[in-house]
Protein backbone atom coordinates (compact mmCIF):
# COMPACT_ATOMS: atom_id res chain seq x y z
CA UNK A 1 0.00 0.00 0.00
CA UNK A 2 2.78 2.44 0.91
CA UNK A 3 4.60 1.79 -2.36
CA UNK A 4 1.40 2.29 -4.35
CA UNK A 5 0.77 5.59 -2.59
CA UNK A 6 4.35 6.66 -3.25
CA UNK A 7 3.95 5.97 -6.97
CA UNK A 8 0.63 7.81 -7.19
CA UNK A 9 2.01 10.87 -5.42
CA UNK A 10 5.07 11.00 -7.66
CA UNK A 11 3.06 10.62 -10.86
CA UNK A 12 0.54 13.24 -9.79
CA UNK A 13 3.24 15.90 -9.76
CA UNK A 14 5.29 14.70 -12.74
CA UNK A 15 5.16 17.09 -15.71
CA UNK A 16 5.21 16.00 -19.33
CA UNK A 17 8.90 16.10 -20.24
CA UNK A 18 10.09 16.86 -23.75
CA UNK A 19 13.13 15.05 -25.11
CA UNK A 20 15.60 16.88 -27.32
CA UNK A 21 17.55 13.69 -28.05
CA UNK A 22 16.66 10.40 -29.73
CA UNK A 23 13.67 8.64 -28.17
CA UNK A 24 14.58 5.35 -26.48
CA UNK A 25 11.85 2.83 -25.74
CA UNK A 26 11.75 0.99 -22.41
CA UNK A 27 13.75 -2.20 -22.13
CA UNK A 28 12.00 -4.96 -20.13
CA UNK A 29 13.27 -5.02 -16.55
CA UNK A 30 11.89 -8.55 -16.14
CA UNK A 31 13.81 -9.95 -19.12
CA UNK A 32 15.51 -13.27 -18.18
CA UNK A 33 18.91 -11.80 -19.01
CA UNK A 34 18.35 -8.82 -16.71
CA UNK A 35 16.28 -9.87 -13.67
CA UNK A 36 16.36 -6.29 -12.40
CA UNK A 37 13.96 -6.92 -9.55
CA UNK A 38 15.28 -10.32 -8.49
CA UNK A 39 18.55 -11.52 -7.08
CA UNK A 40 21.32 -9.88 -5.10
CA UNK A 41 22.70 -6.50 -6.08
CA UNK A 42 26.13 -5.02 -5.44
CA UNK A 43 25.53 -1.30 -5.38
CA UNK A 44 26.96 1.02 -2.68
CA UNK A 45 23.81 0.81 -0.55
CA UNK A 46 23.74 -2.99 -0.73
CA UNK A 47 27.38 -2.96 0.37
CA UNK A 48 26.49 -0.85 3.42
CA UNK A 49 23.69 -3.27 4.28
CA UNK A 50 25.94 -6.30 3.87
CA UNK A 51 28.63 -4.74 6.07
CA UNK A 52 26.00 -3.90 8.70
CA UNK A 53 27.25 -0.33 8.80
CA UNK A 54 25.78 1.60 11.72
CA UNK A 55 24.52 5.04 10.75
CA UNK A 56 24.70 7.73 13.42
CA UNK A 57 22.06 10.47 13.69
CA UNK A 58 22.92 14.15 13.91
CA UNK A 59 20.59 16.71 15.38
CA UNK A 60 18.73 18.62 12.70
CA UNK A 61 19.87 16.35 9.89
CA UNK A 62 18.97 12.85 10.99
CA UNK A 63 21.07 10.21 9.27
CA UNK A 64 22.00 12.34 6.25
CA UNK A 65 25.60 13.29 7.22
CA UNK A 66 26.43 9.75 8.31
CA UNK A 67 24.98 8.26 5.12
CA UNK A 68 26.91 10.70 2.93
CA UNK A 69 30.13 9.88 4.77
CA UNK A 70 29.68 6.13 4.32
CA UNK A 71 28.82 6.55 0.63
CA UNK A 72 31.84 8.80 0.06
CA UNK A 73 29.69 11.77 -0.96
CA UNK A 74 31.02 15.27 -0.30
CA UNK A 75 28.36 17.72 0.96
CA UNK A 76 29.77 20.34 -1.43
CA UNK A 77 28.01 18.47 -4.25
CA UNK A 78 24.71 19.85 -2.91
CA UNK A 79 22.19 20.98 -5.51
CA UNK A 80 18.77 22.30 -4.50
CA UNK A 81 15.54 21.69 -6.41
CA UNK A 82 12.33 23.43 -5.33
CA UNK A 83 9.91 22.07 -7.93
CA UNK A 84 7.48 19.44 -6.71
CA UNK A 85 8.97 16.60 -8.75
CA UNK A 86 9.51 13.98 -6.06
CA UNK A 87 7.31 11.56 -4.14
CA UNK A 88 7.87 13.96 -1.21
CA UNK A 89 6.33 16.76 -3.28
CA UNK A 90 4.02 17.95 -0.50
CA UNK A 91 7.05 18.86 1.63
CA UNK A 92 8.95 20.61 -1.20
CA UNK A 93 8.56 24.27 -2.17
CA UNK A 94 10.69 27.34 -2.97
CA UNK A 95 10.85 27.84 0.81
CA UNK A 96 11.89 24.26 1.47
CA UNK A 97 13.88 22.87 -1.46
CA UNK A 98 15.01 19.29 -1.75
CA UNK A 99 18.77 18.78 -1.51
CA UNK A 100 20.59 16.33 -3.76
CA UNK A 101 24.11 15.06 -3.10
CA UNK A 102 26.07 12.74 -5.35
CA UNK A 103 29.22 10.86 -6.14
CA UNK A 104 30.04 8.72 -9.18
CA UNK A 105 27.88 5.77 -8.15
CA UNK A 106 25.29 7.13 -5.72
CA UNK A 107 22.95 10.05 -5.16
CA UNK A 108 20.98 11.03 -2.07
CA UNK A 109 17.86 13.21 -1.86
CA UNK A 110 16.97 14.92 1.42
CA UNK A 111 14.02 17.13 2.35
CA UNK A 112 14.20 19.28 5.46
CA UNK A 113 11.63 18.05 7.97
CA UNK A 114 11.24 14.59 6.45
CA UNK A 115 12.05 11.25 8.07
CA UNK A 116 12.77 9.70 4.68
CA UNK A 117 15.94 9.83 2.58
CA UNK A 118 15.87 8.93 -1.11
CA UNK A 119 18.88 7.02 -2.43
CA UNK A 120 19.83 5.92 -5.93
CA UNK A 121 22.87 3.68 -6.27
CA UNK A 122 24.52 2.08 -9.29
CA UNK A 123 24.88 -1.68 -9.50
CA UNK A 124 27.51 -2.49 -12.17
CA UNK A 125 25.28 -5.17 -13.69
CA UNK A 126 21.73 -3.90 -13.26
CA UNK A 127 22.15 -0.13 -13.35
CA UNK A 128 20.51 2.32 -10.97
CA UNK A 129 18.74 0.81 -7.95
CA UNK A 130 16.40 2.90 -5.79
CA UNK A 131 15.99 2.90 -2.02
CA UNK A 132 14.45 4.88 0.78
CA UNK A 133 16.03 5.17 4.21
CA UNK A 134 13.38 5.60 6.87
CA UNK A 135 13.95 6.13 10.56
CA UNK A 136 10.58 7.19 11.92
CA UNK A 137 10.91 4.66 14.76
CA UNK A 138 14.53 5.58 15.49
CA UNK A 139 15.92 2.57 13.62
CA UNK A 140 17.25 3.45 10.15
CA UNK A 141 16.20 0.91 7.52
CA UNK A 142 16.84 0.78 3.80
CA UNK A 143 13.94 -0.37 1.65
CA UNK A 144 14.35 -1.07 -2.03
CA UNK A 145 11.80 0.91 -4.04
CA UNK A 146 11.28 -0.59 -7.48
CA UNK A 147 8.07 1.45 -7.65
CA UNK A 148 10.35 4.39 -8.44
CA UNK A 149 10.55 2.99 -11.98
CA UNK A 150 7.10 4.50 -12.55
CA UNK A 151 8.95 7.79 -13.04
CA UNK A 152 12.56 6.67 -13.31
CA UNK A 153 12.37 4.34 -16.28
CA UNK A 154 11.26 5.94 -19.50
CA UNK A 155 12.45 8.19 -22.32
CA UNK A 156 14.02 10.54 -19.76
CA UNK A 157 16.40 7.74 -18.71
CA UNK A 158 16.94 6.12 -22.12
CA UNK A 159 14.43 3.39 -21.31
CA UNK A 160 16.32 1.91 -18.35
CA UNK A 161 16.20 2.56 -14.59
CA UNK A 162 18.04 5.80 -14.00
CA UNK A 163 18.20 9.37 -12.77
CA UNK A 164 17.56 12.47 -14.82
CA UNK A 165 17.68 16.24 -14.35
CA UNK A 166 14.61 18.13 -15.51
CA UNK A 167 13.98 21.81 -16.16
CA UNK A 168 10.38 22.89 -15.53
CA UNK A 169 8.25 26.01 -15.26
CA UNK A 170 7.40 26.15 -11.54
CA UNK A 171 4.61 28.16 -9.95
CA UNK A 172 5.06 30.17 -6.75
CA UNK A 173 4.39 26.98 -4.78
CA UNK A 174 6.86 24.94 -6.84
CA UNK A 175 4.17 23.09 -8.78
CA UNK A 176 5.54 22.40 -12.28
CA UNK A 177 3.45 23.25 -15.31
CA UNK A 178 2.46 20.08 -17.12
CA UNK A 179 3.93 21.31 -20.41
CA UNK A 180 7.29 22.71 -21.47
CA UNK A 181 9.51 20.64 -19.17
CA UNK A 182 12.72 19.24 -20.66
CA UNK A 183 15.44 16.78 -19.73
CA UNK A 184 18.82 18.48 -19.44
CA UNK A 185 22.44 17.41 -19.78
CA UNK A 186 25.62 18.94 -21.18
CA UNK A 187 23.98 19.26 -24.61
CA UNK A 188 21.25 21.61 -23.36
CA UNK A 189 21.61 25.36 -23.89
CA UNK A 190 22.02 27.22 -20.60
CA UNK A 191 18.95 29.37 -21.23
CA UNK A 192 16.80 26.22 -21.07
CA UNK A 193 18.34 24.72 -17.94
CA UNK A 194 17.45 24.58 -14.27
CA UNK A 195 13.84 25.66 -14.15
CA UNK A 196 12.72 24.66 -10.66
CA UNK A 197 16.28 24.63 -9.29
CA UNK A 198 18.28 27.03 -7.20
CA UNK A 199 21.68 27.79 -8.70
CA UNK A 200 24.48 29.75 -7.04
CA UNK A 201 27.04 30.99 -9.54
CA UNK A 202 28.71 33.77 -11.40
CA UNK A 203 28.07 33.29 -15.12
CA UNK A 204 28.14 36.76 -16.66
CA UNK A 205 25.46 37.71 -19.17
CA UNK A 206 24.46 34.11 -19.85
CA UNK A 207 20.90 33.41 -18.76
CA UNK A 208 19.11 30.35 -17.40
CA UNK A 209 15.77 29.46 -15.75
CA UNK A 210 17.14 29.02 -12.23
CA UNK A 211 15.93 30.66 -9.02
CA UNK A 212 12.68 31.83 -10.62
CA UNK A 213 8.97 31.06 -10.47
CA UNK A 214 5.99 31.94 -12.66
CA UNK A 215 3.70 33.78 -10.20
CA UNK A 216 0.76 34.29 -12.58
CA UNK A 217 -1.28 31.10 -13.20
CA UNK A 218 -2.54 32.65 -16.43
CA UNK A 219 1.05 32.76 -17.74
CA UNK A 220 2.65 29.55 -16.41
CA UNK A 221 5.78 29.93 -18.58
CA UNK A 222 6.46 33.57 -17.65
CA UNK A 223 9.26 33.10 -15.13
CA UNK A 224 10.06 36.12 -12.95
CA UNK A 225 13.82 36.15 -13.58
CA UNK A 226 14.65 39.75 -12.64
CA UNK A 227 17.33 39.75 -9.96
CA UNK A 228 17.58 35.96 -10.04
CA UNK A 229 20.72 35.56 -12.15
CA UNK A 230 24.29 35.31 -10.82
CA UNK A 231 23.17 34.64 -7.26
CA UNK A 232 26.07 33.84 -4.96
CA UNK A 233 23.85 33.50 -1.88
CA UNK A 234 20.38 32.07 -1.31
CA UNK A 235 19.61 33.72 2.03
CA UNK A 236 17.09 36.07 0.39
CA UNK A 237 15.33 33.19 -1.35
CA UNK A 238 14.61 31.00 1.68
CA UNK A 239 15.86 30.22 5.16
CA UNK A 240 19.01 28.17 4.53
CA UNK A 241 19.26 27.10 8.18
CA UNK A 242 19.24 23.33 8.42
CA UNK A 243 21.05 22.64 5.15
CA UNK A 244 24.55 21.20 5.07
CA UNK A 245 25.60 23.92 2.62
CA UNK A 246 24.12 27.39 1.96
CA UNK A 247 24.56 26.92 -1.79
CA UNK A 248 23.39 25.05 -4.89
CA UNK A 249 26.57 25.01 -6.89
CA UNK A 250 26.40 25.46 -10.68
CA UNK A 251 29.48 23.31 -11.32
CA UNK A 252 28.09 20.47 -9.22
CA UNK A 253 24.76 20.64 -11.02
CA UNK A 254 26.35 20.68 -14.48
CA UNK A 255 28.49 17.70 -13.52
CA UNK A 256 25.44 15.85 -12.19
CA UNK A 257 23.57 16.53 -15.45
CA UNK A 258 26.36 14.97 -17.49
CA UNK A 259 26.74 12.02 -15.14
CA UNK A 260 23.06 11.07 -15.03
CA UNK A 261 22.75 10.50 -18.76
CA UNK A 262 26.20 8.93 -19.08
CA UNK A 263 25.14 6.38 -16.46
CA UNK A 264 21.91 5.77 -18.36
CA UNK A 265 23.83 5.21 -21.61
CA UNK A 266 26.04 2.64 -19.87
CA UNK A 267 23.05 0.82 -18.37
CA UNK A 268 21.20 0.71 -21.69
CA UNK A 269 24.20 -0.75 -23.52
CA UNK A 270 24.73 -3.33 -20.78
CA UNK A 271 21.10 -4.44 -20.93
CA UNK A 272 20.97 -4.52 -24.73
CA UNK A 273 24.14 -6.61 -24.87
CA UNK A 274 22.74 -9.17 -22.43
CA UNK A 275 19.46 -9.28 -24.34
CA UNK A 276 21.27 -9.87 -27.63
CA UNK A 277 20.02 -6.67 -29.28
CA UNK A 278 21.75 -4.66 -32.00
CA UNK A 279 24.19 -2.20 -30.43
CA UNK A 280 25.70 -0.27 -33.32
CA UNK A 281 23.57 2.89 -33.11
CA UNK A 282 23.77 3.09 -29.32
CA UNK A 283 27.55 2.63 -29.36
CA UNK A 284 27.80 5.57 -31.75
CA UNK A 285 25.52 7.54 -29.42
CA UNK A 286 27.52 6.86 -26.26
CA UNK A 287 30.81 7.68 -28.01
CA UNK A 288 29.41 11.03 -29.14
CA UNK A 289 28.09 11.71 -25.63
CA UNK A 290 31.26 10.73 -23.77
CA UNK A 291 33.35 12.92 -26.11
CA UNK A 292 30.98 15.88 -25.55
CA UNK A 293 30.35 16.13 -29.30
CA UNK A 294 27.18 18.19 -28.93
CA UNK A 295 28.08 20.10 -25.78
CA UNK A 296 26.39 23.48 -25.50
CA UNK A 297 29.31 25.95 -25.42
CA UNK A 298 29.78 28.46 -22.63
CA UNK A 299 29.78 32.01 -23.97
CA UNK A 300 31.39 33.33 -20.79
CA UNK A 301 33.28 31.74 -17.90
CA UNK A 302 31.28 30.29 -15.01
CA UNK A 303 32.24 30.01 -11.37
CA UNK A 304 30.58 28.12 -8.55
CA UNK A 305 30.49 29.20 -4.93
CA UNK A 306 31.22 25.94 -3.09
CA UNK A 307 34.44 23.93 -2.96
CA UNK A 308 33.11 21.38 -5.48
CA UNK A 309 35.23 22.63 -8.39
CA UNK A 310 38.32 21.97 -6.24
CA UNK A 311 37.39 18.71 -4.53
CA UNK A 312 35.81 16.87 -7.47
CA UNK A 313 39.01 16.76 -9.60
CA UNK A 314 40.96 15.37 -6.64
CA UNK A 315 38.98 12.11 -6.72
CA UNK A 316 40.21 10.77 -10.05
CA UNK A 317 43.38 9.20 -11.45
CA UNK A 318 46.02 11.48 -12.97
CA UNK A 319 48.57 10.96 -15.69
CA UNK A 320 52.30 11.53 -15.44
CA UNK A 321 51.74 15.24 -16.19
CA UNK A 322 49.19 15.61 -13.40
CA UNK A 323 46.17 15.78 -15.72
CA UNK A 324 42.80 14.16 -15.09
CA UNK A 325 39.56 13.70 -17.01
CA UNK A 326 37.93 15.28 -13.95
CA UNK A 327 39.70 18.62 -14.44
CA UNK A 328 37.32 21.47 -15.18
CA UNK A 329 37.61 24.13 -17.86
CA UNK A 330 34.58 26.36 -17.07
CA UNK A 331 35.57 28.99 -19.64
CA UNK A 332 34.21 27.64 -22.91
CA UNK A 333 33.10 24.15 -21.80
CA UNK A 334 32.59 22.05 -18.69
CA UNK A 335 35.72 19.86 -18.70
CA UNK A 336 39.24 20.71 -19.76
CA UNK A 337 39.79 17.30 -21.38
CA UNK A 338 36.42 16.36 -22.94
CA UNK A 339 36.15 12.63 -22.42
CA UNK A 340 33.78 11.51 -19.68
CA UNK A 341 35.41 10.68 -16.35
CA UNK A 342 32.79 7.91 -16.10
CA UNK A 343 35.04 5.69 -18.24
CA UNK A 344 36.77 4.99 -14.92
CA UNK A 345 33.52 3.90 -13.22
CA UNK A 346 32.76 0.37 -12.11
CA UNK A 347 29.65 0.35 -14.31
CA UNK A 348 31.65 1.15 -17.44
CA UNK A 349 34.28 -1.44 -16.56
CA UNK A 350 31.50 -4.01 -16.05
CA UNK A 351 30.23 -3.66 -19.63
CA UNK A 352 30.72 -6.88 -21.59
CA UNK A 353 34.27 -6.95 -22.91
CA UNK A 354 33.17 -6.98 -26.54
CA UNK A 355 30.96 -3.92 -26.06
CA UNK A 356 33.64 -2.03 -24.18
CA UNK A 357 36.12 -2.91 -26.90
CA UNK A 358 33.86 -1.51 -29.60
CA UNK A 359 33.41 1.72 -27.64
CA UNK A 360 37.15 2.16 -27.17
CA UNK A 361 37.89 1.43 -30.82
CA UNK A 362 35.51 4.17 -31.89
CA UNK A 363 36.86 6.58 -29.28
CA UNK A 364 40.41 5.98 -30.49
CA UNK A 365 39.27 6.36 -34.11
CA UNK A 366 38.18 9.88 -33.19
CA UNK A 367 41.20 10.75 -31.08
CA UNK A 368 43.71 9.37 -33.60
CA UNK A 369 42.07 11.05 -36.58
CA UNK A 370 40.54 8.03 -38.33
CA UNK A 371 36.99 9.34 -37.85
CA UNK A 372 36.64 12.67 -39.69
CA UNK A 373 33.02 13.26 -38.64
CA UNK A 374 32.31 16.99 -38.30
CA UNK A 375 30.49 16.41 -35.00
CA UNK A 376 33.90 15.96 -33.36
CA UNK A 377 35.40 19.05 -35.01
CA UNK A 378 35.58 20.98 -31.75
CA UNK A 379 38.16 18.52 -30.45
CA UNK A 380 41.41 20.24 -31.32
CA UNK A 381 44.62 18.37 -32.04
CA UNK A 382 45.83 19.45 -28.61
CA UNK A 383 42.65 18.11 -26.96
CA UNK A 384 43.01 14.76 -28.68
CA UNK A 385 46.67 14.41 -27.82
CA UNK A 386 46.08 15.28 -24.16
CA UNK A 387 43.18 12.82 -23.82
CA UNK A 388 45.23 10.06 -25.44
CA UNK A 389 48.09 10.69 -23.03
CA UNK A 390 45.74 10.68 -20.03
CA UNK A 391 44.21 7.39 -21.17
CA UNK A 392 47.62 5.87 -21.72
CA UNK A 393 48.51 6.49 -18.06
CA UNK A 394 45.15 5.91 -16.37
CA UNK A 395 43.29 3.10 -18.20
Helicity, as a percent range: 25-40%
How much strand? 5-15%
Q: How are the strands of the largest sheet arranged?
A: 7-6-5-4-3-2-10
Arithmetic mean of pLDDT: 93
Number of helices: 10
- The rounded distance between the terminal residues' Cα atoms is 47 Å
What shape does the CA trace take? Answer: globular
Q: What structural class do helix, strand and pairing data support?
A: alpha+beta
Oligomer: single chain
The total count of strands amounts to 10
- Could you name the ranges where pLDDT drops below 50 across 5 or more consecutive residues? 1-13
- When the domains are counted, the total is 2
Main sheet, how many strands, which sense, barrel? 7 strands, antiparallel
N-to-C order of helices and strands: HEHHEEEEEEHEEEHHHHHH
What value does the Rg take, in angstroms? Answer: 20 Å
Amino acid sequence: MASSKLALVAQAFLPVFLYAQIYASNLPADHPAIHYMQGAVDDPVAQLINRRVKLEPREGFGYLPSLLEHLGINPDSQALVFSKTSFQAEKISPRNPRAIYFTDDAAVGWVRGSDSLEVAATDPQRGTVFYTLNAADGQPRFTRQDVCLKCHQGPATLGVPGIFVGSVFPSSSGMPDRLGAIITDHRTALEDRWGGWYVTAAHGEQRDRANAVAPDPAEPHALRTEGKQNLTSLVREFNTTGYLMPSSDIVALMTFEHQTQMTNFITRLAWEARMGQSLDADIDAIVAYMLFAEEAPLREPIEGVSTFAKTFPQRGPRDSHGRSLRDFDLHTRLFRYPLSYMVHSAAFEALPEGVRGQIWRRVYDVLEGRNPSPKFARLTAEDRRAILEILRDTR
